[in-house]
Design a protein that fits this description.
Blueprint: H1 7-18, H2 24-31, H3 35-47, E1 67-74, H4 80-91, E2 96-101, E3 108-114, H5 117-130, E4 135-140
Antiparallel strand pairs: 1-3, 1-4, 2-3
Length: about 150
């Protein structure tokens, strides 16, 4: 269920999504409020779980993680034990930066960030040692055309 947010809440969230490192004074000025009421709203948004955490966004390529693969996984196993092993395998691999369970012909899609094709092959070989997978299709992203962590707030 979506939280009830007013216009000031949305301005605060939009400003935080753009740059959460700003001082409270800068943030209050940017949203047209004063420090104490803005701070109280941020605290309430955190308590409500709307603001989950604040992080630094890193440049993958600057860190040598030049290859982004989208991995489409189909499995013939859907029992709880297999799913737990699969989830553990994903959680234990920092290369997996996103994982989604899908509706349709593909069961899961993973976003995997690695240095190169060899590093991806190593990841793939390790994954299939841990869990039985019916079919894996990997797609190398040639160009990231849009990437954002900002959610639409309208």
């Amino acid at each position: 269920m979506a939280a009830a947010l007013d216009a000031l809440d949305r301005k605060i969230l939009a400003a935080l999504q753009q740059d959460a490192s700003r001082s409270l004074e800068e943030l209050a000025r940017a949203v047209g409020g004063s420090k104490t009421p803005v701070w109280n709203r941020i605290r309430k948004l955190r308590e409500a779980g709307i603001i989950r955490k604040e992080v630094a966004l890193l440049d993958a390529e600057a860190l040598g993680l030049d290859a982004c693969f989208f991995v489409l996984v189909r499995t013939s196993e859907h029992d709880a034990d297999w799913l737990q092993r699969f989830m553990n395998a994903l959680q234990n691999r920092p290369e997996v930066i996103e994982a989604h369970r899908l509706a349709g012909d593909i069961d899961y899609i993973l976003k995997v960030r690695v240095a190169n094709a060899k590093a991806y092959d190593d990841f793939y070989r390790d994954l299939i040692k841990e869990v039985s997978i019916f079919n894996v299709t990997s797609q190398l992203s040639m160009e990231e055309m849009k990437s954002t962590t900002e959610l639409p707030l309208e």
